[in-house]
Amino acid sequence: MLNEFAWMVGGQQGEGIESSGDILATVLARQGYHVYGYRVFSSRIKGGHTSYRVRASTRPVRTPNEDIHLLVAFDQETIDIEGPQVVPGGVIAADSHFKPQLPPGLSANLLDIPLTELAKESGNPLARNVVAMGATAYVLSLRLEPFHDLIRDRWGRKGEEVVAQNIQALESGYRFAEENLKGLRFEVEAGDGRSRPALLGNYLMSIGAMAAGCRVMAAYPITPASDIMEYLVRKLPQYGGVVLQMEDEIAAITTCIGAGFAGARAMTATAGPGFSLMQEALGLAATAEIPLVIVDVQRAGPSTGMPTKVEQSDLMQMIYGTHGESPRIVLAPSTMEDAFYIMFDAFNLADEYQCPVIVASDLMLGVSLQTVEDEALDLSQVEWRRGHVAGEEELAAVKAGNFERYSVTASGISPRSLPGVPKGQYLATGVEHAPTGKVTENPQNRVAQMDKRARKLSSLKGGGTRYYGAEDPELLLLSFGSTFGAVEEAREALEALGKKVGHLVLRRLWPLPADELQPYLDKAEKVLVVELNSTGQLRHLVQMHMGYQEKLHSALKYNGLPFYPREIQLRAEEVMG
Amino acid sequence: MAITVTMADYRTAEKSWWCPGCGDFGVLSALQKTLVDLQRLPHEVAIIAGIGCSGKIGNYINCYNIHTTHGRTLPVATGIKLANRDLTVIAAGGDGDGYAIGMGHFMHALRRNVDMTYLVMDNHVYGLTKGQVSPTSDAGFITSSTPQGNLEKPVRPLELALASGVGFVAQGFSGWVPQLIEILKAAIEYRGFALVNVISPCVTYNKVNTYDYYREALTKVEDIPGYDEKDRLGALKTVMEREGLVTGILYREEGPALEDLLPGFREEPIVSQDLRFRQEDLKALLEEHR
Ligand SMILES: Cc1ncc(C[n+]2csc(CCOP(=O)(O)OP(=O)(O)O)c2C)c(N)n1
Ligand code: SF4
Ligand SMILES: [Mg+2]
């Protein structure tokens, strides 16, 4: 009896691979499985091998792994490329249409199934993926009714005939598998019956942004961030907000700077190339002290890199990007729930500290489909904090044109006035300025303003890390972002082997929460920093600011694929010796 | 009780950085006078200035000012207007700011048509960086970056704007402040994107396109018999025939601004709305993913 299983469908891009994956993921999520769906795609619209992987479990899953129990192949290439991942005893259900061959050395069972033919017989030649769902249901011992329900939900609008065709397609796939596999199937533990929403990280982050009060969103399309704009353009107007697709990323960020200056919560979302274009404006927001949220859904760089592949290599650009020295906050969500909540932190901190906040997401978190627990998203746990906004009362005593928007305070945070409010007029500028905003190159003022801006962040404390695992670990795993699930599974596997391993997740990358990191770094004998880049940017960051050179080791991956738990486990064992 | 806005309300204590005689002085006083004539309250006006001598204009007007990075006034202004549609939004900058580094934004702002005024102080040269060629410089114009004379053809902002379909295109001359005030009033009151290109001589780095030259060369549209500001093709023809040397409201056509077309865009400015979210709304959104 399996308590978890993995399924994959593969074929040519544009052949309905994504919808097959979505159907299965949704059905499983409705039945109370925890689901992780991950689509491997390329920057082409039609053609090119593509696959969709669904991992389901009776306990939470937060990462893909390497095993496949059932592979649905729409072409031979899928068998050749993905076949080796099928577990011994697993099934490859391949469309008879292309005369599938098992390459030598594969121990999987081949189910040569006429997907295309059965679809035609159902009356809907396009229902090949629904036939495959039927076979899937058989191989994974899943009940058919939830598939029926989904078919009705998806195609009910198109009339009874379409529904009937799809149901026939589903059942013909099931029967064919039943007759030909003759009991060769997996017994799978049932889900807990609690239906859970399953959605992309990009969508949940968009919902988080909207709930956090984002009302202006401006962006320029880029993989893998476009979902955020596309989601918000459909939803935000219902809450009074507006989304604009701009002419480029410079326009996107500067539109948000304008909206932020005016007092709205504004955000843009992009990936590395677009974030590079935003660098100059980032300095403007920091110097003019304008709140702004930027989501960077990182992908493999540099340059165009691999647009559809994951990487965590914009870290240094997020922390140190733009000329000169300017404050900003960088947050990194590592789970779905946190992708939601971190948007509240992002907007609250942007307002309170009057500076840009960058949310370091990445392709895996952004475009993977994951289940979430409804009650884990709870608005009674959040706050909407707008920072020090000077209202009419506070401004009443100001002499015309003398409001000290950039007054040098002990905290570094100065009162902010919003256009439309009497007596709050000032000049917001990226040019060095006096407390009133008036431009000046006076040396003492320069130092006072630089120090003031830098000082703001020194009061930002707490909430920068999360810890999992042993009290006094031999090995500390340090991670951020989407590698969370893989690192956790590696930690659990090592623990099961009797190793003492801890896992520290950085939720705030900048300012680096050194005070939170220190006790863990002190205690651990060795630290393995896990990150999806080639130079070990996080390791260098920690080393540069905190030392610990001799303790720090790297687990790096930069071939475009996510980390799998086993890889991290092996590297950890190597480091522990 | 009606509050009366006077010129004093729009002045700042700031000492001007401009060279004596700079055309931008005329633009500044025309803009201040316009805002007074329209009785706009300083705190309800946002000026978004670019980088350049021209971009200093915001330093000298008491209102909500933002000084952007070079060339980015228009998207910043877009964000401000969307966030608070009650504000009077005026973007202002130079010919380099708007038609070189900011050209991409210019073309898109024209067709996006957010309600704002774009005031370009066009001196056919880069003033602040000390006299390089600009996109509007005449062919043959000799500068520190074109020692042999400008080899490139000047950009034609009025023609581009007329061709873009935008509903308000005007040109003023900082030597003719009364006409400029009338233009600016109409531009600010126009619902939609209004381009006002203002010929604003640089007395230091442009010894060719001077006040005297323009007083000779420019024609006011009101002096052109039968000129019709509703005739886009006619406007284009006049501007082309006269090599852009015309002032006045060249084209004006009423129509909806982007804000009138945005789905669900409320009368109440975004900044005044309650931004909190309700659990039942969240629940409904998640329900779509089940
Ligand atoms: C990104 C960037 N590149 C270059 C500059 C330098 N720079 C400042 S103003 C300017 C040109 C100004 O010309 P224009 O817009 O015509 O304004 P003017 O000074 O003539 O009023 C340049 C190139 C800059 N500030 N930023
Ligand atoms: S350099 Fe030219 S544009 Fe700049 S202030 Fe002097 S006259 Fe005006
Ligand atoms: Mg100029």
CATH superfamily of the largest domain in chain A: Thiamin diphosphate (ThDP)-binding fold, Pyr/PP domains
The CATH topology of chain B turns out to be: Rossmann fold
Radius of gyration of chain A: 26 Å
Q: Give the biggest beta sheet of chain A.
A: 8 strands, mixed
What does the average pLDDT of chain A come to?
96
Descriptive account of the structure:
The complex is a heterodimer of chains A (577) and B (290). Chain A has 577 residues and is of the alpha/beta class. Chain A has four domains: 4-181, Pyruvate-ferredoxin Oxidoreductase, domain 3, CATH 3.40.920.10; 199-381, Thiamin diphosphate (ThDP)-binding fold, Pyr/PP domains (Rossmann fold, 3-Layer(aba) Sandwich), CATH 3.40.50.970; 388-460, no CATH class; 465-576, Rossmann fold. In chain A, 37% of the residues lie in helices and 20% in strands. Chain A has an eight-stranded mixed sheet with strand order 6-5-4-1-3-2-14-7, sandwiched between helices. A seven-stranded mixed sheet of chain A has the order 9-8-10-11-13-12-19, with helices on both faces. Chain A is globular, with a radius of gyration of 26 Å. The model of chain A has no long low-confidence stretch (mean pLDDT 96). By secondary structure, chain B is α/β, with parallel strands linked by helices. The model of chain B has no long low-confidence stretch (mean pLDDT 97). In chain B, the strands form two sheets. An eight-stranded mixed sheet of chain B has the order 2-1-3-4-8-7-10-9, sandwiched between helices. Chain B has a two-stranded antiparallel sheet with strand order 5-6. Chain B has a single domain (7-287), classed as Rossmann fold (3-Layer(aba) Sandwich). Chain B starts with 6 loop residues before the first helix and ends with a helix. In chain B, 33% of the residues lie in helices and 17% in strands. Chain B has helices spanning 7-10, 24-37, 73-83, 95-101, 103-112, 157-164, 177-189, 211-217, 232-241, 258-261, 279-287, and strands at 45-49, 64-67, 88-94, 116-122, 125-126, 132-133, 168-173, 193-199, 219-220, 246-252. The longest helix of chain B has 14 residues, at 24-37. In chain B, strand 9 (219-220), helix 9 (232-241) and strand 10 form a beta-alpha-beta unit. Chain B is built from eleven helices and ten strands. Chains A and B meet through helix 1, helix 7, strand 8, helix 9 and helix 11 of A and strand 2, helix 3, helix 5 and helix 11 of B. Bound molecules: thiamine diphosphate (TPP), iron/sulfur cluster and magnesium ion. Residues 51-54, 70, 93-97, 121, 123, 125-129, 134 of chain B line the site of thiamine diphosphate.
